[in-house]
Every structure is written in C-alpha cells, then in structure tokens.
C-alpha cells in the first residue's frame, strides 16, 4: 500500500455568512494525482489555502506525512510545494533571482541553492531565459516559472491551484506533462481546475466540489459509472430511417432510438463494442450511414447530474 | 538565560535578510529610480545651493542716477570685471528690494551729482548696500572698492592735466583713458536679516532639507512594493514556505529601513563629497539619520499595509511625502515659516529632524544639543513602526 501523504478531515471555513468550505475530507497517497474539480467560487482556493497552511481553518484537521499541520507549523510546510492561483512572482527580478529568493525561504543556500535553482529551470524549460526579468516572459513562461517555484524544496505534496488558467494549449500540455512526471517520481499532487478535460487526462482520482462541499469522489470510471448513463450514438444517414429504427430497437444493447431529420439517435449501454452490429443492422435496412458520432458521458455530465449546473459559466 | 521563543536562529536571520535584500534590489531595478534616488536629490542640493550664492559670480546691482562721463566709466569698469556680474537697475528702491530678496548679492548707488562734484575736484559718495553677514557680499565689496580706487587714480591724473591748462577736464580724462574720482568715499550699509551664519557653505543650507524630503519620498514610493507584494500573492506564498509571519514582517521592515537609510546616506555622502557639506558630529548625525529613517520606514509599512491598490496609493504617497516635507520645513526652510505654519510643522517628524540637522550643520552642535529632537523622533519611530508591523502582520495571518 502506498503511504498517505495528505489527509484532511472535516475542513470548514466560513467568511461571515458565506460557508466557503464545509466538511471537506480528502486523502492523497504517494504518486497519486488528485483533481479537485469545481466551478468558479466553489471553494477550491479556500480548501487549498487551509491545506497548505496559509489560511486558518474554522474546524477540521490536516496531516502531512502523518504529522499534524496548520498555519504555524514550519516543519510540515517544509514538505509542501505550493503553486498559487495568481502569479506570485517578482516581475522585476529575473527568473533565476525569483527561484533563489524562494529557495532561500526554504532554507537553501550557497551551492545547493544554485544547483537546485538550475535543476528547476531545466525541469520547467527556462534555462535559456533564466537571466531575464520575469516582466519580459510570455504568459506561459511565467506560469512555468511559477510552477518551478513550487518544486524547489522537492515537496512530498505538490499543490497546484488552477495552474493552466490563461495559458496557450502548447504551454498547457507542457505543464500537464510536467505534473504527470513529478507524480511519477512519487510526489502526491493536489490539483484544482475547472477544466474537465484536464481533470480527466491528468488525475488518478477526482473530487467534484460545488458550493463548498465535496459532491462525489473517485476515478473517472467510478464517477461515470455512478452516473448510470448510457452512451449516445448519433448517425447521419439517408434511406428508410423508420425501418432502420425498428430493426435497431430490437437489439438488446440499444435502449432507445429516435428518428431525426437527417438521421438517428440511439442510447446504447456501451457504444464501442456494439458499433459494428449497429452499422450492419442499418445497412440491412437499406440505410446509408454518412457519419457516426459517439458521446460517452464525461465528468461534465457527472457534474451536471450532481449539481444541476454546468461546470463553466 | 534566554527563553526558547526569543532565541535568535541563524536561519531566521538569513531569511530576514533575504526578504529585505530583495526590496533593496528592487529599488534600483527601475531605470528611473536611479535618477530619483541618486541624481535628483543631489541636483536639488546643487541648484538650491547656487541660489544661496555658490558657484556663480556674485551679482552687483547698480543704479546710475546721473548720466555723466565719470559715472558711466565707473559702471563700465565694474562691468568689465569678470569676478562679478553687473545688473543695471533704475531707482534705488528697486535695488534695495533686490538685495533684500537675494536677487543681487549687493547694490551700488551712484549719485547724479557724481560727475559735477568730481570734475570740480570735490569729494563724492557712492552707496554700497548688502545683506548683513553675506560672505559673497563682503568679497564683492572689496572688488568694488578696488575698481573705484583705480578709476579715482585716472580722474586725478586728468584733473592734474587740466590744472596745467593742457586742455579741458573732459579731454584729459579721455586721454588718460579713464575717469578719476578724487577720493570717492564708499558708504556701506546693510538691509534685511539673515537666518544663516557667516561663511557657511551654501550647499549645506539645503542639503538637510533634501535629505528629509527624499528619505520620505523614496520610502513612501517604495511602499508601493509592499502593496504589490501582497496583491500578487507573494506574501502568501512566502508564508507557505517554512517562514513564520514574524520573520516575513521583520524582513519587510528591514527592507523598508534599508531603503530609507540608503537614500539618506546617498544625500549625506553625495553632498559631502561633491559639495563639501559638513554634516557635523558623526554620532549625532548618524543618530538623527537612523531615527528619521525608522520613522519613514514605519510610515511606509503602515501605508503599504493599509492600502490595497498601487494606483490610489501612489497619489497618497506622493502627497504625504511632499506634504509632510512642505509642512515640516523641508521645502521652504523652517526658519521662513510664520507662526501658525510653525505650529503645524512641529507635528511633523521633518521639522524636528530639520532642527536637529540645522544645529549640527550650522552651529556645530553635538548629540546632547539635539537630545530633544532625538527624543521626539524616537517617539514618532516607536509609534509608527509598531503600527506598521502590527498591521502588516495582520494581513498575513488570516
Ligand atoms: N477573503 C474572502 N472574504 C470573503 N469571502 C471569500 C473570501 N475568499 C473567498 N471567499 C468566498 O468563498 C467562496 C469560495 O471562494 P474560492 O476562492 O475558494 O473559490 P474557487 O473555487 O477557488 O474559485 P475560482 O475558480 O474562481 O478560483 C466564494 O463564494 C468567495 O466569494
Ligand atoms: Mg480559486
């Protein structure tokens, strides 16, 4: 069994009458990437701030590597790498100077500091721009440096708060690859996002958060299965659509068929393995299929199902 | 015996210096700040020093009440002397005002009857006017006397020739190439008063004012960095590292103090090296500087901790920096402020520090002479520094 790195239980934070986080519990093990998925204002940053130890919690507990953790514990803060949502860098310092500054706060100095700074620059691919001021960096480069700062202390738990916001797809892929690699090295990663695709691609497990509460948690498959929803198959087709629909309805895997203006819409328990049979049946009914589209339920649908609203507003 | 909480940990001190160091580094990162921090204050010391008479040739205002030959020759001869600049004026009243206001270092009134008196061999009187104890005017007086006696010799020669019946006085005077005034007596007089002692380096008059003005201005504008650091979330990120809130605040405070001190030292050292300003007793000057820098950095921290956005903060900071400077006698010298303005000034740290520096620079005072000023500044420093650090800390621990 992999060791548990982060364990938090019963976390709660209220701002006046707004309960930003209510009874949040999360566990993340070594090498695991956990995604906290939720819309704007769901409470992701509030949750992360309490976990990192920069915001005092109203209730609950956090342990890092089994040690109790809160805002005053520097011993456990040593184990955490934190990448905040906003770009927390000095624009008038160079990339290397920014790394060295935060490295010093982590207790690095001298040759060790310089070596670690260069390693991190290499990891985030900024070695050739390290001597230039951050002000001159592109958005993606600043983001990468920003993530680099979180890696300086070789954390046990890396916490990233929406690290890909406002980043072009190429930089975004680079960032996601970086995170995956780091997790591969045994780091536990807590990652918040409101991009469903990112959570699906990157995270071993996903927690869906809305209005301060964790609504569901599990692997992507777990969550989709929980939804108990079928795949949707859309056929663009010409011919005797009614006859084809009748034939398709008799297949065991097909639970519903709709005749549309330019084709058919089917609900199928599992679309992939049944596609050949579906196409054969329509062919026999004298219908020519011009295109097929399969829509599997995704985290977006799970979210919609759980909260009754779309993930992005 | 030290209790564990108060043990000084070397790592913590390194962190405090790392945080402070970044602030100092950032101070010089913007191209313009080199101008504002180094060039501008020293330039002001220079320009204002010139106004008090350094560098330029002294200005002699001259009123020629008549239009005689002798008088005109005297004016021309003064004008030809390149140790001084002649400003010709009409009317003795204008001259008197100009000397009083410092537009001229001294004035010379040549009476209308000069030519008549002199050509008939009589004794004429010109009036020389200066502010009391203006060293420049004293030099000027010597030169004016020299020119006049030179002219007098020539007039005497012309008169001798006329006496021998070798042509008219005018012809003879032309022949000598100059005038003579048989003993023109120079009557010296003084107008106005001076707050400044004899023989002081003119740059030393404004250097303390510029030090006070700029230490505050630079501290306050650099306080925008405190706001930026918080707004960008850098402070929170620092807090996420194994750094306590106290260490972060200490680092910020040291950084603020370092900036103020750097600015103060630049004005002190720069004016001493470039313009020979003597800041007086070193321990006393150091004590004044350190206390005033503590006050300035306390205000900077308070402003930086209370305000949230750099935009409005910039206006407030400039307003505070210039306003306190003006009210405290760092722009218009404190001595020239009237009664009510003087009362207002006593509520600013500037006025106290100004008095302290004046005592050291102009009157050669020592640390005991400025004890009251040091005491008041220490009070300002304790209150403002405490408020500033408290407030800053409150922004971190939420
Ligand atoms: N300092 C604060 N004072 C008052 N309310 C706050 C504060 N910080 C957050 N909130 C409220 O708490 C709730 C959760 O905010 P939080 O920033 O944690 O959301 P988020 O999921 O990170 O959103 P986003 O995706 O926009 O970053 C919101 O309703 C927000 O308005
Ligand atoms: Mg957020």
Detailed description of the structure:
Chain B: Residues 33-388 form the ABC-2 type transporter transmembrane domain. Chain B: Its main location: membrane. The complex is a heterodimer of chains A (313) and B (398). Chain A has two domains: 4-225, 3-Layer(aba) Sandwich (Rossmann fold), CATH 3.40.50.300; 230-296, Alpha-Beta Plaits (2-Layer Sandwich). Helices cover 36% and strands 29% of the residues of chain A. Chain A contains eleven helices and 14 strands. In chain A, strands 6-7-8-3-9-10 form a six-stranded mixed beta sheet, sandwiched between helices. In chain A, helix 3 packs across helix 4 and helix 8 (220-227) crosses helix 11 (299-307). Chain A is elongated, with a radius of gyration of 24 Å. The model of chain A has no long low-confidence stretch (mean pLDDT 87). Chain B has two domains: 12-51 and 201-397, no CATH class; 59-175, abc type-2 transporter like domain (abc type-2 transporter like fold, 3-Layer(aba) Sandwich). Helix content of chain B is 66%, strand content 7%. In chain B, strands 2-1-3-4-5 form a five-stranded mixed beta sheet, sandwiched between helices. In chain B, helix 3 crosses helix 6 (135-163) and helix 8 runs antiparallel to helix 15 (349-363). Chain B is elongated and about 105 Å long. Chain A binds chain B through residues 49, 52-56, 71-72, 74-75, 77-78, 80, 82, 84-90, 92-93, 97, 101-102, 104-107, 109, 133, 149, 153, and chain B through 11, 14-15, 18-19, 22, 25-26, 29-30, 229, 232-234, 236-244, 397-398. The complex binds adenosine-5'-triphosphate and magnesium ion. Residues 44-45, 85, 161 of chain A line the site of magnesium ion (MG).
Helix and strand arrangement:
The complex is a heterodimer of chains A (313) and B (398).
Chain A (H helix, E strand, L loop, with lengths): L3 E12 L2 E12 L3 E5 L6 H9 L6 E6 L2 E2 L5 H4 L2 E4 L11 H11 L4 H14 L15 H13 L5 E5 L7 H16 L3 E6 L2 H7 L2 E6 L2 E6 L1 H8 L3 E8 L2 H9 L4 E6 L3 E6 L2 H14 L3 E8 L3 H9 L6
Parallel strand pairs in A: 3-8, 3-9, 6-7, 7-8
Antiparallel strand pairs in A: 1-2, 1-4, 4-5, 9-10, 11-13, 11-14, 12-13
Helix pairs in contact in A: 3-4, 8-11, 9-10
Chain B lengths: L9 H18 L3 H21 L7 E6 L4 H12 L4 E5 L2 H10 L4 E5 L3 H6 L5 E6 L4 H29 L5 H8 L8 E6 L11 H21 L1 H8 L2 H7 L4 H31 L6 H25 L3 H18 L11 H7 L3 H15 L7 H26 L2
Parallel strand pairs in B: 1-2, 1-3, 4-5
Antiparallel strand pairs in B: 3-4
The structure holds adenosine-5'-triphosphate and magnesium ion.
The site of magnesium ion (MG) has 4 residues of chain A, from helix 1.
GO molecular function, one term (chain A): ATP binding
Organism (chain A): Micromonospora sonchi
Protein name (chain A): ABC transporter ATP-binding protein YfiL
């Amino acid at each position: 069994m992999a060791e548990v790195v982060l364990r938090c239980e019963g976390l709660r934070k209220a701002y006046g009458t707004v309960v930003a986080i209510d009874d949040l519990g999360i566990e993340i093990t070594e090498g695991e990437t956990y995604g906290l998925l939720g819309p704007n204002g769901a409470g992701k940053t509030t949750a992360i701030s309490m976990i990192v130890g920069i915001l005092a919690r109203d209730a609950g507990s956090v342990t890092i590597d089994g040690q109790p953790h809160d805002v005053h514990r520097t011993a456990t803060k040593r184990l955490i790498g934190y990448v905040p949502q906003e770009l927390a860098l000095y624009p008038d310092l160079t990339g290397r100077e920014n790394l060295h500054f935060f490295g010093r706060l982590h207790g690095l100095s001298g040759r060790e500091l310089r070596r670690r700074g260069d390693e991190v620059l290499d990891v985030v691919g900024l070695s050739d721009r390290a001597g230039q001021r951050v002000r001159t960096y592109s958005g993606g480069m600043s983001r990468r440096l920003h993530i680099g700062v979180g890696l300086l202390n070789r954390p046990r738990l890396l916490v990233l708060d929406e690290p890909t916001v406002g980043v072009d797809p190429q930089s975004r892929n680079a960032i996601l690859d970086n995170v995956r690699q780091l997790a591969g090295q045994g780091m536990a990663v807590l990652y918040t996002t409101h991009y469903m695709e990112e959570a699906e691609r990157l995270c071993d497990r996903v927690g869906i958060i809305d209005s301060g509460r964790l609504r569901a948690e599990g692997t992507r498959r777990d969550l989709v299965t929980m939804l108990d929803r079928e795949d949707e198959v859309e056929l663009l087709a010409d011919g005797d659509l009614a006859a084809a629909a009748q034939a398709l309805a008799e297949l065991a895997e097909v639970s519903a068929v709709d005749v549309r203006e330019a084709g058919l819409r089917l609900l199928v328990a599992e679309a992939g393995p049944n596609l050949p049979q579906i196409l054969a049946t329509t062919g026999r009914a004298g219908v020519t299929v011009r295109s097929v589209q399969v829509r599997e339920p995704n985290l977006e649908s799970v979210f919609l199902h759980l909260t009754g609203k779309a993930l992005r507003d | 015996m030290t209790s564990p909480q108060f043990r000084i940990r070397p790592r913590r001190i390194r962190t405090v210096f790392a945080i402070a160091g970044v602030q100092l580094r950032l101070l010089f990162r913007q191209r313009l700040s080199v101008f504002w921090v180094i060039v501008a204050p020293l330039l002001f010391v220079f320009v204002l020093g010139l106004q008090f008479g350094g560098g330029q040739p002294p200005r002699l205002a001259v009123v020629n009440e008549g239009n005689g030959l002798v008088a005109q020759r005297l004016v021309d001869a003064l004008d030809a002397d390149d140790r001084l600049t002649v400003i010709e004026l009409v009317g003795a009243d204008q001259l008197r005002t100009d000397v009083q206001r410092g537009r001229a270092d001294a004035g010379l009134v040549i009476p209308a009857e000069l030519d008549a008196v002199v050509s008939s061999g009589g004794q004429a009187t010109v009036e020389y006017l200066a502010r009391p104890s203006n060293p420049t005017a004293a030099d000027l007086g010597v030169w004016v006397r020299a020119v006049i006696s030179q002219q007098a010799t020539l007039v005497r020669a012309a008169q001798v020739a006329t006496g021998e019946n070798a042509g008219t006085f005018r012809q003879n005077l032309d022949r000598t190439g100059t005038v003579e005034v048989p003993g023109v007596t120079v009557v010296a007089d003084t107008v106005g008063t001076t707050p400044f002692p004899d023989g002081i380096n003119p740059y030393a008059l404004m250097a303390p004012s510029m030090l006070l003005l700029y230490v505050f201005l630079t501290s306050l504008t650099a306080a925008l960095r405190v706001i930026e650091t918080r707004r960008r979330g850098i402070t929170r990120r620092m807090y996420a590292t194994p750094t306590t809130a106290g260490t972060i605040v200490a680092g910020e405070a040291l950084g603020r103090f370092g900036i103020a001190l750097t600015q103060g030292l630049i004005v002190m050292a720069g004016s001493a090296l470039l313009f020979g300003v003597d800041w007086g007793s070193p321990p006393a000057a150091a004590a004044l500087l350190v206390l005033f820098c503590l006050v300035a950095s306390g205000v900077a921290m308070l402003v930086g901790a209370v305000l949230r956005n750099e935009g409005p903060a910039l206006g407030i900071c400039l307003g505070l920096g210039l306003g306190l400077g003006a009210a405290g006698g760092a722009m218009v010298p404190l001595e020239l402020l009237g009664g009510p303005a003087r009362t207002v000034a006593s509520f600013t740290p500037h006025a106290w520090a100004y008095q302290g520096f004046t005592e050291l620079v102009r009157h050669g005072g020592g640390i005991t002479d400025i004890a009251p000023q040091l005491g008041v500044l220490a009070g300002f420093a304790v209150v403002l520094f405490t408020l500033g650090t408290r407030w800053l800390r409150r922004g971190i621990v939420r």
